[in-house]
């Protein structure tokens, strides 16, 4: 997995690309570091348009990011999922606990 | 087991002494260096020092029965692989570190597709279910990491570090075997690890989006006709339609 970060005053966008799997725990720690000093009410967006594949470990990482964001009164949005990524979000019923945008 | 004893071994980058040792131990014959088997010429097993790169990609479409990674003299053919080869099933046997490093589910799916077993329409679900099962075999089976650790915010860094350190430890030498067989109706794929096993009945049976653990198994269940866990949790067999 690779990622780029785009920041404005109110929003932090993380553009994820490649495959997000059980081999990416170490790499994802640096994404989680972005959540370390949040401004209250800030919006985090994971842009998934560049992601080809996500597994259950990747879903677990989304969940950890969401828990961390909410603990700091911030919100996390999952945006732009397609193909397999869209399918696994549906299978895991993530629409019921995440704000998912096209 | 008698059928396995007529197998021909094809080496790919494996030192001669290791190749000869394996052939002698199991009564296999050695094929000439640099050749691939011809269809209908008996049971062929590719023994390779690595399971990545173009040599393996090309070999996946060749009529091998088994693809076995052997990188050192300590690596052995597992009993599941020997039985699978004997039963004319398609067998993969990888070290944990290789199964972790390469996209091994795609590798198996490439081999199945080359044999006309996997259509492009069925492939995504088979590949995801297989990927989840191999991931379980590697992380929770062979590396022995508890699944309840990774779903916790406070433990995430610890889990990531523990995973890294076990990948360079003795557990990474344990093997992951994938054995596939099929007929006109079903495709069955077994994933076998050498870990301590687990009690499947203790994990949630249904998809719970909030669950800290067990999500991988719930995903596998929703993608397969059946998932059977046997041998104390060390063997998982997935059933799909062909």
What are the main properties of this structure?
heterodimer, A: 102 residues, alpha/beta, five-stranded mixed beta sheet, 3 helices, B: 242 residues, 20% strand
Describe the 3D structure:
The complex is a heterodimer of chains A (102) and B (242). Chain A has a single domain, classed as STAS domain (Transcription Regulator spoIIAA, 2-Layer Sandwich). In chain A, a hairpin with a 3-residue loop joins strand 1 (2-7) and strand 2 (11-20). By secondary structure, chain A is an alpha/beta fold. Chain A contains three helices and five strands; from the N terminus they run E-E-H-E-H-E-H-E. In chain A, strands 1-2-3-4-5 form a five-stranded mixed sheet. Chain A is globular and about 35 Å long. With 242 residues, chain B is of the alpha/beta class. A nine-stranded mixed sheet of chain B has the order 2-1-3-4-5-6-7-9-8, with helices on both faces. In chain B, a hairpin with a 4-residue loop joins strand 8 and strand 9 (235-241). The model of chain B has no long low-confidence stretch (mean pLDDT 90). The A-B interface holds A 19, 21-23, 25-26, 28-29, 32, 55-57, 59-60, 63-64, 67-68, 71, 83-84, 87-88, 91-94, 96-97 and B 100-101, 103, 124, 128, 131-132, 135, 138-139, 150-153, 156-157, 159-161, 163-164, 207, 209-210, 212, 215-216, 218-219, 222-223.
């Amino acid at each position: 997995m690779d990622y780029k970060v785009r920041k404005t005053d109110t929003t932090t966008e993380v553009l994820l690309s490649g495959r997000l799997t059980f081999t990416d725990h170490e790499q994802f720690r640096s994404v989680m570091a972005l959540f370390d000093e949040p401004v209250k009410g800030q919006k985090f967006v994971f842009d998934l348009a560049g992601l080809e594949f996500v597994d259950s470990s990747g879903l677990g990482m989304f969940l950890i990011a969401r828990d961390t964001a909410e603990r700091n009164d911030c919100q996390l949005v999952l945006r732009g999922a397609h193909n397999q990524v869209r399918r696994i979000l549906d299978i895991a019923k993530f629409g019921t606990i995440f704000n998912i945008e096209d | 087991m008698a059928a396995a004893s007529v197998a021909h071994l094809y080496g790919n980058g494996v030192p001669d002494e290791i190749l000869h040792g394996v052939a002698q131990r199991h009564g296999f014959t050695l094929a000439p260096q640099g050749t691939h088997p011809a269809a209908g010429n008996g049971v062929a097993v590719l023994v390779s020092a690595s399971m990545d790169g173009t040599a393996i990609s090309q070999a996946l479409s060749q009529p091998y029965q088994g693809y076995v990674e052997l990188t050192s003299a300590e690596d052995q053919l597992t009993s599941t692989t020997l039985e699978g080869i004997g039963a004319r099933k398609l067998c993969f046997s990888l070290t944990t570190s290789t199964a972790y490093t390469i996209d091994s589910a795609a590798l198996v799916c490439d081999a199945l597709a080359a044999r006309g077993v996997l259509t492009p329409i069925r492939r995504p679900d088979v590949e995801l279910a297989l990927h989840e099962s191999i991931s379980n075999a590697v992380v929770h089976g062979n590396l022995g990491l508890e699944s309840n650790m990774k779903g916790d915010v406070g433990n995430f860094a610890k889990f990531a570090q523990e995973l890294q350190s076990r990948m360079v430890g003795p557990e990474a030498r344990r093997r992951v075997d994938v054995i596939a067989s099929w007929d006109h109706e079903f495709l069955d794929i077994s994933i076998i690890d050498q870990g301590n096993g687990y009690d499947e009945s203790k994990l949630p049976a249904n998809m719970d989006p909030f669950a800290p653990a067990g999500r991988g198994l719930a995903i596998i269940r929703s993608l397969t006709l059946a998932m059977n866990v046997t041998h104390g949790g060390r063997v998982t067999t997935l059933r799909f339609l062909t």
